[in-house]
């Protein structure tokens, strides 16, 4: 199972996606034109589009090992992110240029705190 999971998927704003693509994270499947990234645009991207991409990366695709999502984008689908408990793919919230990281909102850190009884 782990042999299939080789990609990092990203859901984020243009600056984050651009940086990740420059780092070599981007992949477009030749046959289906399916991408491993989704660009969030403030005021243009709907909650349903974010939710659909998150479901695609976490439930439908078997080649994704890690999903990176800007924390401010994760806030739009917070219930969905918090309820995702599978080991693979790992879902990690990251900061963006315009929105600082808030550890109080991070779903992984919330689970760790509960585990340690904090």
UniProtKB/TrEMBL annotation:
<dbReference type="GO" id="GO:0046961">
    <property type="term" value="F:proton-transporting ATPase activity, rotational mechanism"/>
</dbReference>
<keyword id="KW-0406">Ion transport</keyword>
<keyword id="KW-0926">Vacuole</keyword>
<protein>
    <recommendedName>
        <fullName>V-type proton ATPase subunit F</fullName>
    </recommendedName>
</protein>
<keyword id="KW-0813">Transport</keyword>
<comment type="function">
    <text>Subunit of the V1 complex of vacuolar(H+)-ATPase (V-ATPase), a multisubunit enzyme composed of a peripheral complex (V1) that hydrolyzes ATP and a membrane integral complex (V0) that translocates protons. V-ATPase is responsible for acidifying and maintaining the pH of intracellular compartments.</text>
</comment>
<dbReference type="Pfam" id="PF01990">
    <property type="entry name" value="ATP-synt_F"/>
</dbReference>
<comment type="subunit">
    <text>V-ATPase is a heteromultimeric enzyme made up of two complexes: the ATP-hydrolytic V1 complex and the proton translocation V0 complex.</text>
</comment>
<dbReference type="InterPro" id="IPR008218">
    <property type="entry name" value="ATPase_V1-cplx_f_g_su"/>
</dbReference>
<comment type="subunit">
    <text>V-ATPase is a heteromultimeric enzyme composed of a peripheral catalytic V1 complex (components A to H) attached to an integral membrane V0 proton pore complex (components: a, c, c', c'', d, e, f and VOA1).</text>
</comment>
<dbReference type="InterPro" id="IPR036906">
    <property type="entry name" value="ATPase_V1_fsu_sf"/>
</dbReference>
<keyword id="KW-0472">Membrane</keyword>
<keyword id="KW-0375">Hydrogen ion transport</keyword>
<dbReference type="GO" id="GO:0033180">
    <property type="term" value="C:proton-transporting V-type ATPase, V1 domain"/>
</dbReference>
<dbReference type="InterPro" id="IPR005772">
    <property type="entry name" value="ATPase_V1-cplx_fsu_euk"/>
</dbReference>
<comment type="similarity">
    <text>Belongs to the V-ATPase F subunit family.</text>
</comment>
<dbReference type="GO" id="GO:0000329">
    <property type="term" value="C:fungal-type vacuole membrane"/>
</dbReference>
């Amino acid at each position: 199972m782990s042999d299939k999971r080789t990609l990092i998927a990203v859901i984020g704003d243009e600056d984050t996606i651009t940086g990740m693509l420059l780092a070599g994270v981007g992949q477009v499947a030749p046959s289906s034109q399916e991408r491993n990234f989704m660009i969030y645009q403030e005021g243009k991207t709907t909650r349903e589009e974010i939710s659909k991409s998150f479901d695609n990366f976490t439930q439908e695709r078997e080649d994704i090992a890690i999903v990176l999502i800007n924390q401010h984008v994760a806030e739009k689908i917070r219930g969905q992110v918090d309820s995702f408990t599978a080991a693979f793919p790992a879902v990690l919230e990251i900061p963006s240029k315009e929105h600082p990281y808030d550890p109080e909102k991070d779903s992984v850190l919330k689970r760790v705190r509960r585990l340690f009884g904090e």
